[in-house]
Amino acid sequence: MKLNKSIAALPAGYLFAEVAKRVNTFIAANPDKPVLRLGIGDVTRPLVPAVTDAFANAARAMGTKEGFHGYGPDFGYQFLLSAIAKNDYQNKGVMIGEDEIFLSDGAKTDCGALQELFAADATIAVTDPVYPVYIDANAMAGRLGVYENGRWSKLTYLPCNKENSFVPPLPEKRVDVIYLCYPNNPTGTVLTKEQLKKFVDWALENEALIIYDAAYKAFITDDEIPFSIYQIPGADKCAIECCSYSKTAGFTGTRCGYTVIPKALCFDGLSLNKMWGRRMASKFNGVSYPVQKAAEAIYTPEGQVQIEECLAYYRVNAMIIRDGLIKAGIDAFGGVHSPYVWMKTPGDMKSWDFFDLLLNQAQVVGTPGEGFGPSGEGYFRLTAFNTLENTKEAVERVLKVL
Ligand code: PLP
């Protein structure tokens, strides 16, 4: 039996396992010292009532003769695709049609699977630091060469750091695909329309594809920051956009998202919309009816008010972290259109050393930047997903240590 050795060759996904190990060891040795977790990337606020009502009603309907639903349409029920096209795009001036949207069980699934569209020897670029899924998925497909000293030999890294204000440089050499994620995980930073336009223009010139992960778009509060790559002219000819209800509406455990592939997106005369549709029809059997009804409820007036209230709660937390650090003279980035704050470690400390310092002296847990890629070394991620009380207390504790 010939195995896919590229999966076996992946470096161990040690980041959160190592964080958990160090935290558990600390708690076992210091049971009287409560630990505050600002490392979590999962939401903590419950689903809003508009969503749970729709979810429960649809689940009950499934138990009736009239309301039962078996297999749904491959790409999503029309009621939800239409709500997405209207509310997330057309009403905001972006002309995406229902037949350009593919519903899925989340952005991770699609960010990981879209590489099936690429040739085996397609070349890939990612921003660095990065959400690891884009790299792992391409590494498993055998595209990235060998992993040595924290780097893949065939992967192009676009470093994002304090020096370039977290605006990635364009690739020096042509690549087939660039993954961009804005608002960014882990740095919490955003790109302006002009900055994003440079990537779109580059992709058009170089006949390259952009996979644009907009999982955190709901956190954007400024019209100057693009909520979609399709606000940039020409992006419909070079970009795929992945979206998620996880952070928008607390769907991390409910599972629903969608991917936009415009009909205008073609390479070598082949339509990516058609190719993805063919692939989805073979490999995916849809998102459950109650979950799609729950997602539809996000777009009702009550749903909108309720999810905005949750987003506002996290935004306040992010601001408390960011402002607290900046006031204390720490370089802190992100946290404005994002639930993530990315800080420089004091005195260029290694990010794992800083992790240990905060855990031992402040009992605050964050995520070492090095775990997100080589350019994350010397940085540290704090998240806004804890309670307001815990966030305030954690920031006070961090500032005391600093
Ligand atoms: N994309 C980014 C950048 C993320 O940070 C996450 C989750 O943390 C996801 C996608 C996953 O989204 P989903 O829950 O829809 O799979």
Which helices and strands occur, and which strands form pairs?
Blueprint: H1 5-8, H2 15-29, E1 36-37, H3 49-61, H4 78-89, E2 101-104, H5 107-113, E3 124-128, H6 133-140, E4 147-148, E5 151-152, E6 155-159, E7 177-181, H7 193-205, E8 209-213, E9 239-244, H8 246-249, E10 257-260, E11 266-267, E12 270-271, H9 272-283, H10 289-297, H11 301-327, E13 332-334, E14 340-344, H12 351-362, E15 364-365, E16 367-368, E17 379-383, H13 388-401
Parallel strand pairs: 1-15, 3-6, 3-7, 7-8, 8-9
Antiparallel strand pairs: 2-10, 4-5, 9-10, 11-12, 13-14, 14-17, 16-17
Pyridoxal-5'-phosphate binds next to helix 5.
Short descriptors:
alpha/beta, Aspartate Aminotransferase, domain 2, 4-stranded antiparallel sheet, 37% helix, 15% strand, binds pyridoxal-5'-phosphate
Largest β-sheet summary: 7 strands, mixed
Count of the separate structural domains: 2
Cα end-to-end separation: 55 Å
Bound molecules: pyridoxal-5'-phosphate
Helix proportion range: 25-40%
**Gross morphology:** globular
How much is the average pLDDT? 97
Strand content: 15-25%
Radius of gyration: 21 Å
The CATH level-2 architecture of the largest domain is identified as 3-Layer(aba) Sandwich
Low-pLDDT runs: none
- Find the CATH superfamily of the largest domain: Type I PLP-dependent aspartate aminotransferase-like (Major domain)
CATH class of the largest domain: Alpha Beta
